[in-house]
Design goal:
- By secondary structure, the chain is mainly alpha-helical.
- The chain has 13 helices and no strands.
- The chain has helices at residues 2-28, 33-38, 45-54, 61-72, 86-121, 126-140, 143-157, 175-200, 204-211, 216-245, 248-253, 259-268, 272-300.
């Protein structure tokens, strides 16, 4: 497995380079950052030239990308147009979003897998139909509607939680935003687990375990659930990066100053250094999450071996 992990890490290098190049090019065609920095009033030629030289915008795009990548490997993600280091913005934003993402993933795993197992074992019964309809509603309703309703009901009307999260974003204040962020993914995890459980429940190895007289809970946990979790783990692993990058709506609703907030501000102000820097780290998170998922396959299924 060690050689497989090293080989996968080497394969990530061209993927990382291609993804960052694509993001770099897309960000640099969304508008002139100097014009956005000056606002409605046009910069005078001297100021515009000084700003372009200071931030390296007077060079060709390929040279800007090469310079950026050379600095990334030294831990320097550039400087925002307000003079603040992007790495400092990351130091304050990523811990908040990581906590929010962990809360969301816990909800996905605990609630989603539990509901999926119950539905898969009771397929076709009223509880299965009810949860299927509920997950369909959750998937159909946009996240900003779910977030605003949750904020209004639990935060304003019932006063069970704070309607907005404080700047430090403690874990107890992130429970409701984490549930909102995980709502759609939780519904998909429930459906995936249900389908996998229902399919594997008819497999020969499950029938053999039942015929041997093994306790029902052991058949479910040791045999049925373990093999059924492979597609669920695949989905959750790829969803981690999506949750961190897609938290813009949730963080705006609950006033969370995390990665989504910084990305929103960077796009709004055409701050290319901030956007590219944060997306670069999200690409790394996504690649590492996929590697972890591949390694977990061997843990869940003993038949899988990596050379």
């Amino acid at each position: 497995m060690g050689r497989y992990a090293v080989r996968r890490l080497l394969q990530m290098i061209p993927v990382f380079a291609g993804a960052t190049l694509l993001v770099f090019l897309m960000v640099h065609v969304m508008g002139d950052p100097v014009a956005g920095l000056c606002g409605e009033r046009q910069c005078d030629p001297a100021t515009e030239g000084r700003l372009r030289q200071e931030f390296g915008l007077d060079k060709p795009v390929w040279q800007q990308y090469a310079t950026y990548m050379a600095h990334v490997f030294t831990g320097d993600f550039g400087t925002a147009f307000n003079g603040q280091k992007v790495i400092d913005l990351m130091a304050s934003a990523f811990p908040v979003t990581i906590r929010l993402t962990l809360v969301a993933v816990v909800f996905e795993v605990v609630i989603g897998v539990a509901l999926g197992v119950v539905m898969g074992l009771r397929r076709g019964r009223p509880v299965d139909t009810s949860v299927l309809l509920l997950t369909l509603v959750v998937i159909a309703v946009p996240t900003f509607v779910t977030g605003l309703l949750a904020q209004l009901v639990f935060g304003v009307t019932w006063k069970l939680v704070q309607p907005s999260v404080s700047f430090t974003a403690p874990l107890d204040e992130l429970l409701l935003p984490g549930l909102v962020l995980a709502s759609v993914s939780l519904a998909y995890v429930t459906r995936l687990t249900r389908t996998s459980i229902a399919e594997n429940a008819r497999a020969d190895y499950v029938r053999t375990a039942v015929a041997k007289g093994l306790p029902r809970h052991r058949v479910i946990t040791r045999h049925l659930l373990r093999n059924s979790l492979i597609p669920v783990v695949t989905f959750i692993g790829t969803d981690i990066g999506a949750l961190m990058g897609g938290a813009i709506v949730t963080e705006r609703i609950f006033n969370i100053h995390g990665v989504g907030f910084q990305l929103y501000q960077g796009i709004l102000r055409q701050n290319t250094q901030t956007v590219v820097g944060f997306v670069t780290v999200l690409i790394i998170v996504f690649l590492l999450a996929n590697l972890l998922v591949d390694l977990l396959y061997a843990v869940l299924d003993p038949r899988i071996r990596y050379a």
